[in-house]
Amino acid sequence: MIVRLPELWSANPIAFWLVVACLAYFVWMASRLVVIDIRSHLLPNRIVLPSYWTAVPLAVAALIGSGGLDVPGLVRVLGGGIVLWVVYFVLRIVYPAGMGFGDVKLAGVLGLYLGYLSWEHVFWGTAAAFLLGGLFGLGLILLRRGTGKTAIPFGPFMLVGAGLVLLLPAA
Prior knowledge:
The chain is mainly α and 171 residues long.
């Protein structure tokens, strides 16, 4: 997303400032949630749920970003949020011990952010979260600090994975 900012500035300064505001909020939200989830294995609603509303400017920026109405961009933002929410909800239903509902709610927010750039970003942000979480779990097992049953907060991996992918250029 950072790579896209200069072109957005020249195309539509209003969309630029909307995206900058959303990125600033993302950094604040992510830093708070990482600390809270590591300490308590919880992703509090008082932070996650308002994040849906603070991602609304991304949808507006996607709609007006290129100077005209970009309906596919808007669909991508909203679709990214819906698709990730549904994927994580299914994972929660299939294996409730492995995924908390806070992760499901956070997935929708991250889908909005990643969907702003592309469907590939939605995929890679999700893949990065599972890869990072899996490597961390494997490291715990190899260092004999945990087992396959050890509870690991997944929110930090979701946020770091999405944050890393947001730094990639849009397709």
